[in-house]
Amino acid sequence: MTIDELRARLVKLNTEIELHREALKSLEQNRSLVQRQMNAALDPVARLPLEISSEIFRHSLAPFPDPRPLHAPMLLLNICNAWTDIALSTPSLWAAIHIIFPSGLSSTQSLKALVPIWLQRAHNRPLSIWLSGANFDYNVLSIIWSHAQQLKHLEISDVESDDDDIPLWKGIIPGPLPSLETLTTHGVYGAGLSHHHILDLLRLAPNLIECSLELDVDITVDEILVLPKLHRLMFGECGTSPLFDYRFLEHLSLPGLETLFADAILESLLSFLQRSSPPLRELVLGNESDMPLLAECLHLVPDLRRFEMWDSPCGLVEGFFAALIQSPSLLPQLRTLVFHINENQTVDNISISFWTVALRALTARRTHLQVFHLQVPIGLASSIIPAAEISAALGELAADGMKICISGSDGKWKRTYD
User: Fold this and answer.
1) Is the dihedral of CA 385, 388, 394, 400 positive or negative?
2) CA dihedral (308, 270, 216, 183) positive or negative
3) N or C, fewer C-beta in 10 Å, the chain?
């Protein structure tokens, strides 16, 4: 063949190859489509009604989902088209998010690009957002605050900042938060999170129901903020000693408060109770030693059902028992009583008179009191067990229905009476 004939032959072969490639590509696309259709037909999730498959997907979520690709709900978008359709048709999958600064996402998956899409997928659902980490991104915060009307739960934790004013409040203040029901801050020591910052948020959230705070700075402000719908205020976490409230109660009036968990100065607590007249049902306090002032506070909360004190000196606990005996009007509705004896107490502080007064108080309230728990320092475990006659009397109270427990602070031993 001549050179021209060979060139023409090559052109013809290349053309045929391209045609076959296009045909093969079309066949592969058709095969992929048929495969997806067959997978959808065989996939039990895809065959379910949307409301059921959506409910299954919701059970795969953490309370505050991680937005990275290997975590639900983002992971659900990468399984198959049917699952993608279900996930995108379920706004509740996108109604919560945990935003960590910095995020660890690639530049193409930045929070600035991801967060608006995520929140748009939630449509008009109430939003739950958890913010944590260092170097808060102002652009991302602006996106979040643009959805402030939908925000129902807000948590701020593990904030790292050397500034006196954490970036969350540097020039970016949210608008009204009419739907916000819970606010939580923790892990913020050293971040300058003060009264001013919290009051900025509380002032915008008139319908707040529950608030759990960790404050870092005591700054005096000349303001009394009234939150009539706040039912639960905690400084710290349940099951641990309350955190100091930095006199924050002095700036609040909470006429609907039912639970208070705080290491508060008793003078501040007294003025707060006098100002708010709250229908407290549960009160957990930190270290106190002034029994007369404590009794004055407790007389202002006659509907209290549960009272707990941490780091209590034995003298105050004994004085509390004596007050229960002497004053039937003190806490007439009390059902649960818990004391955590201060770790600095010695065996000499828990005397026979301590157990005698405790038994008299429990006996005086036997028709109402349902639970009594005394936690003692671990070094006293072998020494503080009540004498035989006291133990027998405690057993009789337990037989009548009162749950009585004496335990060590290390959690390794306890004595129950039943």
Assistant:
1) positive
2) positive
3) N
| DSSP-assigned letters across all residues of 196-222 | HHHHHHHHH-TT--EEEE---B-----
| pTM over the 0.85 mark | no
Across 123-186, where does the E strand assignment appear?
A: 127-134, 151-160, 182-186
Nearest to 168 by CA among 203, 137, 205: 137
Structure tokens at 325: 């005996």
302: its two tokens: 């006659």
Residue 7, number of CB atoms within 10 A of its CB: 11
Q: Please report, in tens digits, the pLDDT of each residue of the chain (418 residues total).
A: 788 888 888 888 899 999 999 988 988 888 877 776 666 666 677 667 888 888 888 998 999 999 988 899 999 998 888 888 889 999 999 999 999 887 666 655 688 889 999 999 999 999 999 988 876 777 888 889 899 999 999 998 877 655 545 545 555 567 899 999 999 988 765 555 566 778 888 989 999 999 998 876 666 667 799 999 999 999 988 888 998 888 889 999 999 999 999 999 999 999 999 999 999 999 999 987 789 999 999 999 999 999 999 988 888 999 999 999 999 999 999 999 999 988 776 555 677 788 899 999 999 999 999 999 998 876 554 555 677 888 889 999 999 999 999 888 777 777 888 7
- Give whole-number Cα distances, 416 to 250, 301, 374, in Å: 40, 29, 10
Q: 321: closest CA among 364, 278, 374, 357? A: 357
Q: Where are the domains of the chain?
A: 305-418
